[in-house]
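Person: I keep going back and forth on a fold encoding question. Show me how you would write down a chain together with its backbone fold. Please set it down just below, with no commentary around it:
Helper:
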Amino acid sequence: MEQHASRRRDLTRAVKALKKATPRGLLVGSPNFRPRFRGMDLVDEYRFVVHPVVAGHGPFLFSGLQPSLRLKFVAATRLKSGIVALHYRRR
């Protein structure tokens, strides 16, 4: 158990160092990393792309999220295709 906590601290330190060294920030698109980074309080902004298609199935972005995540709207961009890009920051 201690080894897992140590790796988690190492990962948290490494990501914080990368964020600090990268003025424009880091973009993480992998669904495998999002919950881990969110759980370590490493996610500052969220960008969503909404396609004009309702599939009725697929993965959930925030399954098992506890507690709820409060976001502040930053911007929305509508593309010619009908896709909408949304930008939010943590409150």
Summary: The longest strand covers residues 71-78. The chain has a mean pLDDT of 81.
